[in-house]
């Protein structure tokens, strides 16, 4: 039974430079701000940043790991509020995702997702809508 | 050239349809660190954000419109939303069309929204992707 206030199991994801390169290859998004310090600095960024779509994909896992079938996701949106800076070292950047059911009705559940890199919220208005059976 | 609000409504169709393969889905799932079994095997569906990869074929056409004068290396992704009619599946042959919906300017920065419709080549709706990007025209 899914109820308002239900908390989903949280998820921690660590992104290293190699993960950004792998995502660039798999997604076809070779924007240099995701692998080239010089180009990132030229755009005024604090360093090489993770693809927003990679952060968004990781955040979705909190929800799709929880529902039985990822096909039940009907809507999913985020704002990229702070860039996730990925240093060129072995530690990379760690993001902690958590989520809570905000609304249930009409066979759907609306879930709010929180994404924290350190103390910083890196996603805003991250929300998924799933079909509930 | 530069982009402005008079260009809202322009549509860009991906040059070719996208033939979704199960190995590509697995590669993408691996790249996002997602071991969900739904994304593997003969009946694989794609992770939700894979829809953006298909849409980027249409975005390429938008970037190729010289009148807009946009450059990928000056773009930062601001927001993204998807509405799914059904998941993308291995074996799908998918067409993507991006339409400019909003253009706002603030100095050298242009905030651009575009909507991408994903359908099968037979016209079955699959998903709609709504993207907000900011494009910085300032010389570094």
Molecular structure report:
The complex is a heterodimer of chains A (133) and B (140). Helix content of chain A is 23%, strand content 38%. Chain A is an alpha+beta fold. Chain A has a domain at 6-16 and 50-131: Thiol Ester Dehydrase, Chain A. In chain A, strands 1, 2, 3, 4, 5 and 6 form a six-stranded antiparallel sheet that branches. The longest helix of chain A has 13 residues, at 52-64. The radius of gyration of chain A is 16 Å and the shape is elongated. Chain B has one domain (5-136): Hotdog Thioesterase (Thiol Ester Dehydrase, Chain A, Roll), CATH 3.10.129.10. Chain B is 18% helix and 38% strand. In chain B, strands 1, 2, 3, 4, 5 and 6 form a six-stranded antiparallel sheet that branches. The longest helix of chain B has 15 residues, at 50-64. The two termini of chain B are 19 Å apart. The mean pLDDT of chain B is 94. The A-B interface holds A 13, 19, 22-23, 25-29, 31-33, 39, 42-45, 51-54, 56-58, 60-61, 64-65, 69-71, 73-80, 83, 125 and B 27-28, 30-34, 36, 38-39, 45, 47-49, 52-53, 56, 72-84, 86-87, 130, 132, 136, 140. Strand 2 of chain A pairs antiparallel with strand 3 (75-84) of chain B, so a sheet runs across the interface. Chain A: Residues 11-91 form the MaoC-like domain. Chain A: This is Acyl dehydratase. Chain A: Pfam families: MaoC_dehydratas. Chain A: Belongs to the enoyl-CoA hydratase/isomerase family. Chain A: One of its GO terms (molecular function) is fatty acid synthase activity.
